[in-house]
């Protein structure tokens, strides 16, 4: 939405209410207090919500607390779901990939969750680098068929995360939109929308995985000012 400073105080409340509605309350606030002020000219963003049931649900009576290893070498007790049914799994020298399909919805689209597990306990950062620099990496490692398993375990979890993403995006090489030399005015049909550039980006996400399936939501909003 494009607005003048007269409307600025109302914008954060309107955006937060919209995001809360779209995400069914999983994300209650995307724009913190003070993020929209008299210098803000454009708020651009999106929000999405997903809820899917596994095609093969886990037996809750078999969920047991076990050790989950953290990146710093420590561990915590976490509830693990388990199954002995055949699973979509692929394995290489450095990585295991599990595919968990969701039941089809009314529009017949098929979604799946992919869980990647590095075989090295400290291999997460190397895996993240491959995913971001090798476009074909995920496709090469997708499981194509079910294989027998003695038992596999998956942590049951609920997490939420939010941050101001400008520095991260700049670190990935996205500099021009944040520069006063940027001109985003053609995105707005207004004669007063001149020399717009991105001043901040806010992101929040939520995901819960349990025996029944997955519920998740995400929202991202960018603020623009005039140079």
TrEMBL record:
Q: Which Pfam families match?
A: Serpin (PF00079)
Keyword terms, alphabetized: Protease inhibitor, Serine protease inhibitor
Question: Which species is this record about?
Answer: Hordeum vulgare subsp. vulgare
- The protein's name is Serpin domain-containing protein
Q: Tell me which residues make up the Serpin domain.
A: 1-227
Cite the InterPro entries for this sequence: Serpin_dom (IPR023796), Serpin_fam (IPR000215), Serpin_sf (IPR036186), Serpin_sf_1 (IPR042178), Serpin_sf_2 (IPR042185)
Q: What is the lineage of its organism?
A: Eukaryota, Viridiplantae, Streptophyta, Embryophyta, Tracheophyta
Q: Which Gene3D superfamilies match?
A: Alpha-1-antitrypsin, domain 1, Antithrombin, subunit I, domain 2
What do the Gene Ontology cellular component annotations say? extracellular space
Q: Look up the domain of life of the source.
A: Eukaryota
Q: Which molecular function GO terms apply here? A: serine-type endopeptidase inhibitor activity
Family under the similarity heading: Belongs to the serpin family.
Q: Which SMART domains does the entry link to?
A: SERPIN
